[in-house]
Amino acid sequence: FFFSSRRRHTRSSLVSWARRCVQETVTGRPEKLVKITEEYFRKQKLFAGDDIPEYPLGTVKVDLDSIGTTISGPKRPFDTIPLNTVKENFETSLNAPLGHRGFGLKAKSKEFSLTYGKEEHKIKDGAIFLAAITSCTNTSNPTALLGAGLFAKAAVEHGLKVPPYVKSVLAPGSKVVTEYLEQNNLLPYLEKLGFFITGYGCMSCIGNSRSLNPEVEELLAKNEELIGCAVLSGNRNFEARIHPLLKGNYLANPALVIAFAIAGKMTIDFEKEPLGTGNNGKPVYLRDIWPNYQKITDSLPNLINQNMFQKVYSNVQVGNQSWEEIKVEATPRYDWDPKSSHIPVSYTHLTLPTKAQVQISVVAVSLKKK
Asked: pLDDT digits over 270-287, tens only?
């Protein structure tokens, strides 16, 4: 792609569209901030204008047929797995040597019994016990979150449910997400699948999901060889980071998080196996209810608006009732509770370096470079 579409617009029209996207249509940021941002990018030669080459210095060839949907896991964010090979990949990883891509199991997968309420569930390696739409980076994207909402709506309308042993979490990166999910009547469908808003920002992605269901934790504690899994829309999935009892952790986009939650397991081939059985008694496949992201993108101006951002950020410092009831003293340093198990941080023992020490450090760095 060589910027050919830019020739169809004048420079002023492109600037107008950029401002409209940043200021009027979406976030409601003030005109002064928009001007400062534009000026900065111009001076850094990052502003797409007539002063940049029409063609890049090099060409990268991409085979579009080779690009497909992927997830990452089970222990590192850069270990990608094509979606249509997830089942095969997981089954291979069970007996692979213990490491980034293997769990080192010597025996074949066992089947465990989990009694939840009055129901008994058969649990195998790859069972999903935590499904979280979480992380500030991946859950402030309107297209991704509206897609998840529409996917949840379609799933509920088809009669699909999330198994009761799966703990579901919805922690958007911004309160604005709540606004457009509510105004577009999508939040109720997420809640029917167990995805209630628990907070905002980094939660499950840094291990803040708290306890799993008690029955699940008891099962995992008694059977250490059982490979329980989590699926989340975060950006880190190192072992024990998400939850100390879950050994397999996979990163996926928000809609896929819901899909895996409904399946309740990693050992599913979405192309060949259904998510579940619909209201009409027929199997429901992922492709049957997957949202049309192009339509979502085209409809964004009608789905989100400036008022949502202004409403949220006009009182962003105000929390809910529980938050506001916390008593905090107006002190320059945090008032640590002596009984708290948290380790207090103190910098009182540190001293500022002298001018001579700074000069010595600079000389040392210079010598290393030579």
From this structure: 999 999 999 999 999 999
CA–CA separation, 207 and 298 (whole Å): 36
First to last CA, the chain: 42
Structure tokens at 330: 């107006």
Phi, psi angles (nearest 5°) of residue 123: -115, 130
Contact 91, 129 (CB under 8 A): no
Highest mean pLDDT of the ranges 19-33, 181-195, 298-312: 181-195
Three-state secondary structure readout of the chain: CCCHHHHHCCHHHHHHHHHHHHHHHHHCCCHHHHHHHHHHHHHCCCCCCCCCCCCCCCCCCCCHHHCCCEEECCCCCCCEEEHHHHHHHHHHHHHCCCECCECCCCCCCCEEEEEECCEEEEEECCEEEEEEEECCCCCCCHHHHHHHHHHHHHHHHCCCCCCCCCEEEEECCCHHHHHHHHHCCCHHHHHHCCCCECCCCCCHHHCCCCCCCHHHHHHHHHCCCCCCEEEECCCCCCCCCCCCCCCEEEECCHHHHHHHHHHCECCCCCCCCCCEECCCCCEECHHHHCCCHHHHHHHHHHHCCHHHHHHHHCCCCCCCHHHHCCCCCCCCCCCCCCCCCCCCCCCCCCCCCCHHHHHHHHHHHHHHHC
Query: What pLDDT does residue 4 have?
Result: 45
What are residue 271's phi and psi, to 5 degrees? -75, -30
Q: How do strand 111-116 and strand 119-124 relate by DSSP bridges?
A: antiparallel
Distance, CA of 245 to CA of 226 (rounded, Å): 10
38 is written with which tokens? 């534009």
Could you tell me if 129 and 212 are in contact, meaning their C-beta atoms sit under 8 angstroms apart? yes
Whether residue 174 is predicted with pLDDT greater than 80 in this model: the reply is yes
Full-model pTM: 0.79
State how far the Cα of 211 lies from the Cα of 243, in Å rounded to an integer: 8
d(CA 265, CA 129): 9
Q: Which long-range contacts (CB under 8 A, 24 or more apart) does 291-300 make?
A: 291/147, 291/150, 291/151, 291/154, 291/255, 293/143, 293/147, 296/143, 296/146, 296/147, 296/150, 297/143, 300/142, 300/143, 300/146
